[in-house]
Amino acid sequence: MRIGRAIAPPRHRGDGLIGIVPRVRSYHFLMTIFQGKSVLITGASSGIGRGVALRLAGLGAQIGLVARNQDALELVRKEIAAAGGTAVVLPADVTDAEQVRASVEGMIAQFGQLDILLASAGLSLRAYFESCQLEALERVMRVNFFGALYATHFALPHVKKAKGSLVAVSSLTGKRGIPSYAIYGASKFAIQGLYEALELELRPDGVHVGVVSPAFVDTPLRANVLGPDGQPWANPPAPPFRVWPVEKCVDRIIRLLVKRKRQTLMPWFAGPLLTFDELLGRVLGDRILMRRFPP
Ligand SMILES: NC(=O)c1ccc[n+]([C@@H]2O[C@H](COP(=O)([O-])OP(=O)(O)OC[C@H]3O[C@@H](n4cnc5c(N)ncnc54)[C@H](OP(=O)(O)O)[C@@H]3O)[C@@H](O)[C@H]2O)c1
User: Domain boundaries in the chain?
Assistant: First the structure.
């Protein structure tokens, strides 16, 4: 109980546990789901991956923390350990298949099983495609798509054995083309395609496959967003829509895991908006997006 309370999420309107899981009144239920589960998280040193690592550790899961920055991972591990949780640092650059393989093997060596993969490692590039250097475009694809692909490939046999979950963090840009997010969106559409097919392939084996597609979330991602030359923007363009708290995104991911859902969009009204956009032949959506995301 100490762990659950120690890393409990803030309780704000609509985000409390009752909001996350209808008919669930306490952490006890969630702990019965996640207690003793082994969870490998790429991108665990920051933002959404870090948030999910802390939350799941608080619910009794054993966490494998993957990213490049070993010091940042060690801080997350210490935070989890200080609250009574269990985590291991498994540094890797997700663009290197062998490093990702070693992280998965490290997880199995440490915990003997892998129940859940959360592929959250990613970076963003905001610039019109025409102005982008090829190396920058390739880098986004390597981190966002191949990073998720390698983690999924090596985790799959273990997750299949556990009848567990494969979850990838995509984006609303992976559901709808948005100016200045051509390559970022392409990397997320690719994840969407991979995971949609995997969901059908693995359903008979009892594996849960899910995709999380958030709008703007309050993490360091946007401060580090790359420009057309592949270098971070000195002054990144301001997001033209609301930026959501990271805890809200963590809630959505926990809910997706508990309900073994195929997909979750954030905010909730993104789904109806996308349907409405299609019904209107995308005319209104195109106009809004072109105005909000100028060159
Ligand atoms: N924040 C948003 O607005 C938003 C919206 C929609 C979707 N997303 C998606 O959510 C995911 C998480 O992003 P975030 O918002 O949490 O961003 P973040 O705070 O910047 O975290 C990104 C994470 O990815 C890791 N990473 C980056 N390149 C890597 C590499 N080559 N190898 C291993 N790890 C790498 C980073 O760690 P190291 O630097 O230590 O390697 C960090 O842990 C991403 O896939 C992003 O596309 C974010």
Answer: 2-292
The fold of 2-292 is Rossmann fold (3.40.50)
Indicate if ligand 1 lies below 6 Å from the C-beta of 46.
yes
Query: What length is written for the chain?
Result: 295
**Taking residues 6-18, what's their average pLDDT?**
42
Round to whole Å and give the CA distance between 122 and 117.
15
Q: Determine the distance separating the centroid of ligand 1 and the alpha carbon of 134, expressed in angstroms.
A: 21
Residue among 150, 181, 184, 195 flagged as catalytic: 184
CA distances from 229 to 137, 139, 146, 182, 234 (A): 9, 11, 21, 15, 12
Is residue 195 flagged as an active site residue?
no
Which helix (DSSP H) or strand (DSSP E) does residue 213 occupy? strand 208-214
Contacting residues for 134 by C-beta, under 8 A, at least 6 apart: none
Q: Does residue 173's CB lie within 6 angstroms of at least one atom of ligand 1?
A: no
Question: Residue 14 above 50 pLDDT?
Answer: no
Residue nearest to atom 20 of ligand 1 (CA): 221
Q: What is the pLDDT of residue 68?
A: 98
